[in-house]
Design goal:
Blueprint lengths: L4 E4 L1 H9 L11 E4 L6 H10 L4 E6 L9 E4 L11 E2 L3 E6 L13 E6 L3
Parallel strand pairs: 1-2, 2-3
Antiparallel strand pairs: 3-4, 4-5, 6-7
Helix pairs in contact: 1-2
């Protein structure tokens, strides 16, 4: 039908790419995935089945009601991060005293911006 974009939760994307007819969806240009952890093997399978399609992981906690970060999949990637903040959104990783933590140090994710 000429569909160019689609949104999936990973469990539904897994079922979709397993269908033999998925390869025939050549009009798809982008897929957005959100709502569950997105396994790297599934992201790689999606670009294998749909080679002309950009695959994007979106993240957003329920409290934000929409996505706040995005990442475009790179074929062969061994991880799927939540990505970088979308436009007009700030993301901070803070410790229990609300101080920023160093890169690679665990903390809590705090969000700011007009979209909240």
């Amino acid at each position: 039908e000429g569909v160019t974009g689609a949104d999936f939760v990973p469990s539904l994307l897994e079922a979709f790419v397993a269908e033999p007819g998925a390869k025939e969806c050549t009009s798809l240009r982008w897929i957005e995935v959100a709502g569950e952890a997105f396994p790297p093997a599934l992201a790689n399978k999606a670009v294998e089945v749909l080679p002309g399609c950009g695959v994007h992981n979106l993240y957003g906690p329920t409290e934000a009601s929409v996505e706040v970060t995005a990442w475009q999949h790179v074929p062969g990637a061994d991880r799927v991060p939540i990505g970088a903040p979308i436009w007009n959104t700030q993301v901070y990783v803070l410790d229990a005293a609300l101080r920023p933590v160093a890169p690679g140090v665990a903390g809590e994710l705090y969000l700011a911006g007009a979209g909240l």
